[in-house]
Amino acid sequence: MNWITNYVRPKISSLLSARQVPENLWIKCPETGEMVFHKDLEANQWVVPSSDFHMRIRARDRLNHFFDKGAYDLVDLPSAPVDPLKFRDSKRYVDRLKEYRAKAEMDDAVLVAKGDVDGLPIVATVQDFAFMGGSLGMAAGEAIIKGFETAVAEHRPLVLFSASGGARMQEGILSLMQLPRTTVAVEMLKEAGLPYIVVLTNPTAGGVSASYAMLGDVHIAEPGAVIGFAGARVIEQTIREKLPDGFQRAEYLLEHGMVDMVVHRHQLKEKIATLLKLLTKAPATLAEAPNPVVEQADNQNALPAPAEQPESRA
Q: What is the pLDDT of residue 282?
């Protein structure tokens, strides 16, 4: 055995060779161009600390931050036909689905979970843009409807986080049929007298914005989220006019009455919990309830009321 060839040379080569750095070790802020360490970004709920830019967040990460102590139960979702139209573009639709399922570690673009938010039991439906742009197909439609059915059956409010580019073209008219189906599911929830809060994230577009995403009792948008039916470039080419700055951004829609509020991601849980307690008339938590001991002490420290003066008689 030649120890120089078999031992020394491989050791020297390993020391001199370039080390492989993971591609996602540093992430570039789309707004400022600053490079942010991905662990810091993940710890900050995928909000860039310096610029406050809200990046897209995965569905499971959102659920972990949203529910109390990150505890929740995923709802079993019904199955749907796979590739009903036998669609093929640059590759077969079934192959594309397999690729995204392996990459996103999800069966489709929607997750439905049950858990508590500040002690209030709710159902949460989350779309994940990482799965084919959060597009709405038959499986996603079935999942969204299942979320509404679960909320009605267990008498819980429903919070939906939308993130989608619209209908899934590989399923054609079957994808578009999910718009009226999900709209009917929204009406089921409202007939049951249960609150429905929609959180519009970046982006919410196409058929999603024309159906369940714009039918909530309260519409909350994350800062900078793009929300609309058609893209700004398509609209400009159609009307042959320049659109205003910030058109279709959350802040622009707030100014023009299309959304109710724009809330930072770090404050979403607290804001939604407050809204749901108001809408359901739920009792205040211990932290919010008045403290009788403090009230009694305050009453004892208060100045005595002035004695009533006897009426003067003429």
A: 83
